Amino acid sequence: MKRFSVICFLIGVLAIINTNNASADILFESGTLGPTAVPWSDVVDQTVFGANVSSAVFDGVRFELTAPAVIFEIGGHFVAPTSSTFFGAIVKLDDDVDFPNSGDLSTPDVLGVTLLTFPAPSAEVFGNLALSLDPGWYALVFGSGLYGAAGNGAMPLNNPDIGTQSYIAFVSSHWKNSAPTDGFEFKDFRFVVKGSIIPEPNTLCLTVLILCLASVYGQTRFRLRFNQ
After folding, report:
1. Are residues 7 and 32 in the same domain?
2. In this structure, what CATH number is given to the domain that contains residue 51?
3. In the β-sheet with 85-93, what is the strand arrangement from edge to edge?
4. pLDDT tens digits, residue range 59-73?
5. What is the pTM of this model?
6. Which range, of 48-52, 159-163, 179-183, averages the lowest pLDDT?
7. Which ranges constitute the DSSP H helices of the chain?
8. For residue 217, what are the domain limits?
């Protein structure tokens, strides 16, 4: 019986590992990637429009998770005059209209931060950020001047947004929505969150658990009878 219990335990561990060993997927993307290798000069002279990413301007987008997930990477399409660093942050929101609680991203609603490197010319880049997230609303924010990031760059325009995106920005010491009434319009940029949805326990896991419980119960009954 002991040998059977050990076998049950090992099979259970393998089943759990298999259940949670999902490959990284795109959990969220604001839009599909547009033309890359855009030179900084094209953004400066507005041949290609772009949104500043600097210590004075943080760009972000709200997104919703409908199931528990583990994220691995955050990123998007960026460009800068030279290779330099900027930060990316995941911020917990109360709902689909909430903003981060602080302008310097120093409050507990900031769940994780990573540094990324601006490319020159433009390219899609990512930074590693491992977080376990519950269902709910979040913001993905990029900027500079915090967390050791000192670069200045931009997000060049991409293909049209996927659906209606809820973009935000920290400009002039205030968080704002992307809307004409808030004084700025922001669309067609590439924000990406990669990770894996945490799956429900599969049939194999449940079967192994039942067998293990039955084994333990059987051993307990046998010992009780033997000791009587």
Report:
1. no
2. 2.60.120
3. 110-117, 85-93, 136-143, 57-65, 166-171, 174-177
4. 999 999 999 999 999
5. 0.79
6. 179-183
7. 2-20, 40-44, 203-227
8. 1-22+202-228
